[in-house]
């Protein structure tokens, strides 16, 4: 591939190479007649400024990395899309690095982004090691973490504990006495925070509790497996809190299709995230809504705040999810959190 060069534009316009550069540099001085000739030649040839090269020369690439494991899955897909749009509105160029959770994978992603002089990195997945933060600091690269728990970077966090506590109290307030958590064994900070807060609040309300991990991934198949564990016998929960909506979909399908139970009459279900499928007629899931647009906007705001205040202490933003009531559970008025 051979892109049209500034030199070709200069030759067609009959001007110097520097005149072409000045024409496409904001605020640079160039005679009106020269500008017209350059713009006409550029349009004729299909010329575009090499923003990547210009950014590297100025040490401002406008590239921003988004590091995420399985960005196509559930809420993360919507958050990734919202981040890309928010970054583009800012004038940045998002680069998605689809990586895993291991230290080696995260460091490899960081090396790639620093090598391409990315202006900043937004991390959605994994638990970055100390070396990850040290390398970013040495290179002056801001880090924004979403849903993580590290102390050395700026964060956007969901109100996991608040929402999970509300879920347990809403179940108890509606007279449900055996409360369960359907979850994964992924062990992410968000998942663990939701599990712990729900169980603590349920036990404080005098309810029996149980936790079932259906698999490593926080997806539909994990929900199906967790449902099978929780409802294997005749002594089963009458309410289930699912640590995300995909897990809730699997639990609901098990209850209805494999156990012949009614939702919510026999078993109430609450999810977390409010992905679009939660409103589908097959599920009509009561769930806590995380707004991906709000979280993305907050992350980009933190990025800019860090660029403007490089030596400030870590910034934190907390976004509290709201309960969206549908058919899988109807809270008693005054007990919905």
UniProtKB/TrEMBL annotation:
<dbReference type="InterPro" id="IPR000843">
    <property type="entry name" value="HTH_LacI"/>
</dbReference>
<dbReference type="Pfam" id="PF00356">
    <property type="entry name" value="LacI"/>
</dbReference>
<keyword id="KW-0805">Transcription regulation</keyword>
<dbReference type="InterPro" id="IPR046335">
    <property type="entry name" value="LacI/GalR-like_sensor"/>
</dbReference>
<keyword id="KW-0238">DNA-binding</keyword>
<dbReference type="InterPro" id="IPR010982">
    <property type="entry name" value="Lambda_DNA-bd_dom_sf"/>
</dbReference>
<dbReference type="GO" id="GO:0000976">
    <property type="term" value="F:transcription cis-regulatory region binding"/>
</dbReference>
<feature type="domain" description="HTH lacI-type">
    <location>
        <begin position="4"/>
        <end position="58"/>
    </location>
</feature>
<protein>
    <submittedName>
        <fullName>LacI family DNA-binding transcriptional regulator</fullName>
    </submittedName>
</protein>
<dbReference type="Pfam" id="PF13377">
    <property type="entry name" value="Peripla_BP_3"/>
</dbReference>
<dbReference type="InterPro" id="IPR028082">
    <property type="entry name" value="Peripla_BP_I"/>
</dbReference>
<keyword id="KW-0804">Transcription</keyword>
<dbReference type="GO" id="GO:0003700">
    <property type="term" value="F:DNA-binding transcription factor activity"/>
</dbReference>
